[in-house]
Every structure is written in C-alpha cells, then in structure tokens.
Design a protein that fits this description.
The structure is a homodimer. Chain A has 13 helices and 10 strands. The first copy, chain A, is of the alpha+beta class. In chain A, a hairpin with a 2-residue loop joins strand 9 and strand 10. The structure holds a DNA duplex.
DNA sequence: TTTAGCACTCCTTATTTTAAAGTGCTAACA
DNA sequence: TGTTAGCACTTTAAAATAAGGAGTGCTAAA
C-alpha cells in the first residue's frame, strides 16, 4: 500500500463519510457531509475533496451523480483512526462490560462448553453480528487424565481430559488381542508419567522412549503405543458459532443471493477454523477488513478477533464476523471486553 | 376432517394438480392439466372439477383468473395416495440405496459421531432438503462404562460411555472432601453392578438401594450417590442438522423474509428436538404436512421422519425437513432407505 | 483557493400500456 | 344431465414511459 498523505481536512471528510455510511448504508453526498458534520466550507469544496479521495482509492462512486461509498481502504483508515480512541476513551464502559460478564462467566468456570456457548451468544446478542469462539487448541493444553476403554471386538475408545476440563474422545481401531487390562496399564502409565504435561511434548517423549528402549519391534507394545499416539493427537475442530440469523437481519445482506451466500459461508466451519488458526497470537486485537481476508468467501465481511489467555499464554480466539460496514467502535469494544473477561475467568 | 368422497376422475385431477405444482411452483391451469396428464375431456370440464375441489378445500386460487394451488389437505391426499406405491413399486430402487449406503456406513459402525454426520449429510445431499438425525436417547441405552474424575477443588467430571459407544461427559459440582480414590470406588461399584443395564433402570435401582441399606443419612455417601444420579441423567440434546443452505436455494424460499424465517427456525435446535421426541415410534414413516405440525414455526414446512432401530427396538429418528411442496415420493423413499440402512448398520 | 450557480446524469418511483394466462358463464350439443 | 365450444372478463406480470430528485462536475467570479 502506498503511503498517502492526506491533509487534516481530507481526513475529517473521509472519516465523516465512513461514519455516515456505517450509520446508514446509502451513498453519502457532499452537502449532507457538510451540514451533518459541521464543516464551514461549502459543498463544492467537500465535493472536490471527495473527488480527490476517490482518486486515492478511499471512496467509490456507484455511478456518476451518486454520492460516495467507502472502499475497504477507507474502512481501514477509519479503523486505524479510531482504534486507539476506543480503547482509551471508552475504557470505563469496557470495564463495566468486563465486570458484568466476568461475574456471569465465573459460574461456568468449570464447564468449558457452557462457558464458550454463553460467551458467543452474548457476543452476538450485544452486537447483532456473528459471535465465534475457538476452543483452546488441545495440543497446547496439558493432560489431566486419559482412559482407554475397550469397545466391541476391534475398537478402543480413548477418553482424554485436559487441564481445562475439556473432554475429548476418539475411537481407535485396534487389534482384538488387546485386553482391557492392558489398556488400563497403558492409561496408568501415561497418567502417572505425563499428568500436567502438554500433549505435543507427551507425543514426542513417547516416541523417544519407544526408540530408546528398543521395544520398537515388539509388535503388541508397539501397537498399543500407536493407539496412544493416535489418542493424543487432536485436530482443531471446536468452534462455537452463534447468531447467524442476526447477520441475516442486517441491511447489508438484504437480497436473496447474499443471504444464501452468507449462510453457505458460515456453515463452512472448516474455513472459519482455518482462518482463526492463522491469526497470530501476538496482536491483542486483529481486524480483517474485506479484501484483506485470505479467504475469498469472506471478502465481503469484516472480522474482529482477539485471543483469550491464561497466565499470559494465548489459548484460543474469540471473534465477531459482520459486514464491512460494521460498527467497528462497538465491535472492537465488545470483542476486547469479552476476550478480557474470558481471560479473567480462565486465570482465576 | 370430514370424509369427502371424490369420484375417480376428481381424484385424478387433484393428483395431477399436486404433481404438477410439486414439479413447478406455479398455479396450475385446467388446460395444462388436460393436455399434460392426458385427460380426454375438455378444459371446461376440468375447470368444473377444479372448482368443486376448491369448494371441498383441496385447492386454492391466489386470485380470480389464476390457476389453482394445492392446500395442505391436497398434499395430505397426495401423500396418502402415493405412500403405498412408493414403498411397493420403488422397492428395487430403495434396496439399491440401502445397499450402497450400508456399505458406506458400515465403516463408521463404531463411531456414532461420524455415522450420524455422514447420514444427515448424505440425506440432505440426495434430496436437497434438510437432513436431521436424533441420536439414540441415552436414557434408553445401556451403560458400557462410567468414570469419575476429580477436577479442581469442587468439581467432578463424570464420563459415561453407553453401549453404542457414545461418550457423554458432565461436570458436577461436588463437595471438596471427596477424593479421587472414593470416586474410583464409586465407578467400580457402578461398573461392576450395572454394566449393560439401561440408565433409567440403574437410577431407579440406585435409589432403591439407598433406601434399603439405610445409608441414606450418611452424608458423604449420600452426596456421592447424588453425583452418580446426576451423572446418569441425560437430557436429549444430540441433534445432527445438515444442509440448511440446500433449503435456501429452493424456489419456495425465494424472498428475504422467508429466508430469515427459515434460518431462525432451523437454528432453534430445542424446537426440533421437541418435535422429534413427540413422534411416536410405532409408525415406520411419519409425515407431517404444514398445518399438521404442532409447532407454529414449522407450519410452512413438511417433515418426513422415520425411526431407526436395533433389534426391533427404536433408538432414535432420522428426518427430512423441506417445503410443503416437497417431492414426497423421493423424500419418503430416501428417508425410508436411510433409516433402514442405519438400522442394518446398528444391528450388525 | 473557495464559492455560487447551473446544466447534466443517473437512479428511483410511479404510472400507463400491453400481452398473456386462465377463469366463469352461457348456450348448444350428445 | 353431463360435456363442450366460445367468449367476455379479471388479474397479473412485464415492458414502456414519465416525473422527480439527489448529487455531481464544471465554469466563472470572488
């Protein structure tokens, strides 16, 4: 992106156009801007400025003789502009949201399922956008306990509880010779050696041990440990999604084709998970506007995401998905507050 | 419903109108019916018949000088009419679907999650309607194994595996004094006494035992057994839903308001679960057309549902939800075939 | 550099027109 | 008595036309 220098007045105009369009999704005219935002130059001047802004790629004219509509670049400008302000000047408001929510979530502290369901539902309710939460990546959490249960002839159900209290189970095909007794020993072995250790570490250590102790060639044990390896590997699949129909009531998706498109996109959990996996943890709040999105299907939407943490370590992500013409101020505020609340709750 | 006697010709006309409307959602005219369905009377005669059918409540005219549209009563007539035929004359086709699907599902036999996901997805894919499956009611299944895991100070995670290999977990608040050791004893006790027994029986028996052995007043044991009671009670919440956007591409839901409505309705899992819970198991295939539905929100839709079984005992339900103007023939055929496949798979 | 003024463009909405589909009725017919 | 041919009448959907309005771009003057 080339670095464009806009004078102060041009910035004010741009800001006003975006603000106005977010408020009401209609092309914005020069006279309207002048009056509504108290400019003391006449509309023709505003017109010139808007024309310049269009040349610079910030505004777009649906047709000659129509007002202007912000481009993605304009939203980006707007967001960068208000971002600091939101967090600074609305901190009291944020604090209050955090307090109330934390109080609510505290009760669900031990039940991750309810905790995240409640979070996404509230997030969507508060903003009327789509609320999302990606559960902590199991691989990065620690083992609380594992159990193996023989099921029918040739299967083993592995039940893994991590230190967040999330229970996962996996059905593993196994040779019929394995007995429940052997499985119990295996569980005991893993539980006593690896309780509290991260899953990726455990898998590595198991592999090391296998090689070192030369039991690699003992068929049965090797098979058992392979079960274990399988049981301890998790793909990321726990995404909570709330409030699709909230999106469907927005004026931005007011025709049949758009509604179908959005329902199809949001139904695609896989895509959303991939999106959130790729968001780095180092930013407090990540904002992806329209075309900035790596995924084609999401390019007419904006995403506000923030990691939630436990003792400074990022666990997962909560996010809002809404139209590009989003109330960014409110959205940022809420995502921020909700992520903080979740962090508080999990760190208690 | 009053019992109306239609002569053979009137029935043929009614049938033709419904068939035609299902094929293309446009009011059906008398001339069209005459030509397309090979009546050898002239259109005026058909017109008279259609007028009679309207008086009887089978047809509806959007406005004078428009063709006729079937009412719910007409669909009901149509379905009753073709029902037997479908199962009889298309049994070869059904057989083939069952064979193919059973082959596919067999591999997922031990993994209920995948099994039902695959089923609903295929069902929706094949019909372009909404595919649904209600998991076996846990209460009616049998205990395979239970485990209690102490989690943090004041919680216990109960992990229950039933005889279908479905794993459920529950977080239970408990007094901090309980140790993992005690919980293990409890699990051992339950597993050795109740393995293979139905959950509702187990709960009852536990209660009886409590009273008989006069340990009711021992606080600790009483508390532990209460945990157990809680762990063994399940509300029905596992509903698989696939293909919402398939519905959204149908001409029946071609305007914004209808799309919003349907998304909102389908998102309401609770409602759908209630609907399916109330469907009795004794019918092979239950068809609910429009106004027949007990729930207001579903009255512009039709539902085709069928229980799947294990050794003759009904476990749960699979279903299709689509527009009233549904291809009932195809829908009935597929629901029937899919339920049978599932039954085969589970009974193997 | 800014402003007033004005012609021009394009969209939106309402109105009218036209064509087509289909009915309902009447009178004749078998 | 049921069926048919014929025709006037409704109503809608689509196309054409007209009116209104919002907003621009440009020019010339301040």
């Amino acid at each position: 992106m080339k670095n464009i220098i806009l004078d102060e007045r041009a910035k004010r105009v741009l800001w006003a156009v975006v603000e106005s369009y977010i408020e009401k999704p209609e092309p914005v005219g020069s006279r309207y801007i002048m009056k509504k935002y108290g400019f003391d130059v006449c509309s023709a001047t505003i017109r010139n400025i808007m024309s310049d802004l269009e040349d610079e790629g910030f505004l777009f004219q649906p047709h000659t003789s129509a007002g202007r509509v912000p481009t993605d670049l304009a939203y980006r400008f707007y967001v960068d502009y208000i971002f600091e302000e939101v967090l600074k000047f609305r901190s009291a408001e944020v604090k209050k949201i955090i307090e109330n929510l934390t109080k609510k979530l505290r009760k669900l502290r031990n039940n991750m399922n309810s905790l995240f369901l409640e979070t996404t539902q509230n997030l969507s309710q508060a903003t009327k956008y789509l609320g999302l939460a990606l559960l902590p990546e199991t691989d990065k959490t620690a083992l609380h306990r594992i159990d193996f249960i023989k099921f029918r002839e040739d299967s083993v159900i592995a039940i893994v509880v991590n230190d967040k209290g999330i229970v996962k189970n996996k059905i593993i095909r196994a040779i019929p010779e394995i007995t429940q007794h052997e499985l119990n020993s295996l569980a005991d072995f893993v539980n006593s050696n690896y309780h509290g250790k991260a899953f990726d570490e455990i898998r590595e250590d198991l592999l090391r041990r296998l090689k070192k102790e030369k039991i690699y060639w003992d068929k049965i044990i090797s098979k058992i440990l392979k079960i274990c390896q399988q049981a301890l590997y998790f793909s990321r699949e726990d995404l909570y999604i709330s409030g699709l129909y909230n999106l469907m009531y927005l004026p931005d998706f007011c025709d049949v084709e758009k509604l179908r498109q959005i329902a199809k996109t949001i139904q695609n959990r896989h895509l959303l998970i991939k999106l959130f996996e790729n968001i780095s943890d180092d930013e407090e709040i990540k904002i992806i506007i329209g075309e900035e999105n790596p995924f084609e299907e999401l390019r007419n939407l904006s995403v506000i995401a923030s990691p939630y943490k436990e003792r400074g370590k990022s666990l997962g992500i909560i996010a809002l998905v809404g139209p590009k013409r989003m109330n960014y101020e409110r959205a940022i505020m809420f995502v921020n507050a909700f992520a903080k609340s979740l962090t508080n709750t999990l760190s208690e």
